[in-house]
Amino acid sequence: MFIGEYLHTLDLKNRLSLPARFRKNLGRAVVITRGLDHCLYVYPKKDWAREAKRHAMHASGTAAGRGLARLFLAGAMEAEVDSAGRVLIPDHLRNFAKLKSKAVVAGVASRVEIWNENAWKKYTTAIERDADAFAEKLGNIT
């Protein structure tokens, strides 16, 4: 399980160092794809088939299902984690997430998310502000 948030810098070659705590569970091969809220999702390659299958089930269903399947599957890229723990972020994904020089790498259960630093701050501020209302809406989840 991936948990925690870390601030990292993209180098001049668009490589991002993954947190050491995530590397063992991610392995040497990962899949990076567009995620919700304009962040990137990173999955261990060994887990990607299950995730892709889940989205592929909706690829010929409703417009919403087709759209999400396209979002997650069409933009997905396999990437290797180098010996320094860095992964290359392809241009189309870097542009999608509006990644600049700094990025937040966050563990979210079965996946890792990569966020533009300012977008993460804005998002977490809103979530922290509304957390009680969300918990009420979902029922007692704590």
Characterization of this structure:
The chain is α+β, with helices and mostly antiparallel strands and 142 residues long. The chain has a single domain, classed as Transcriptional regulator MraZ domain (Chemotaxis protein chec, 3-Layer(aba) Sandwich). The chain is 42% helix and 30% strand. A 6-stranded antiparallel sheet has the order 1-7-8-4-3-5, with helices on both faces. Strands 2-6 form a two-stranded antiparallel ribbon. A hairpin with a 5-residue loop joins strand 3 (29-34) and strand 4 (40-44). The model has no long low-confidence stretch (mean pLDDT 92).
Show the helix and strand layout:
Blueprint: E1 2-9, E2 15-17, H1 20-26, E3 29-34, E4 40-44, H2 45-56, H3 63-74, E5 77-80, E6 86-88, H4 91-96, E7 102-109, E8 111-116, H5 117-138
Antiparallel strand pairs: 1-7, 2-6, 3-4, 3-5, 4-8, 7-8
Summed up:
Helix content is 42%, strand content 30%. It has 142 residues and is an alpha+beta fold.
What coarse outline follows from CA principal-axis ratios?
A: globular
Q: What would you say the CATH architecture is?
A: 3-Layer(aba) Sandwich
- Which percent range describes the beta-strand content? 25-35%
- H/I helix tally: 5
Tell me roughly what share of residues is in helical segments.
40-55%
Extract low-pLDDT stretches: none
Order of helices and strands: EEHEEHHEEHEEH
The CATH superfamily is identified as Transcriptional regulator MraZ domain
Radius of gyration using CA atoms only = 16 Å
Structural domain tally: 1
Main CATH class:
Alpha Beta
CATH topology: Chemotaxis protein chec
**Major beta sheet, strand line-up:** 1-7-8-4-3-5
Question: What's the rounded overall pLDDT mean?
Answer: 92
Separation of the first and last Cα atoms: 18 Å
What's the total number of strands? 8
**Helix-strand makeup class:** alpha+beta
Query: What's the story with the biggest beta sheet?
Result: 6 strands, antiparallel
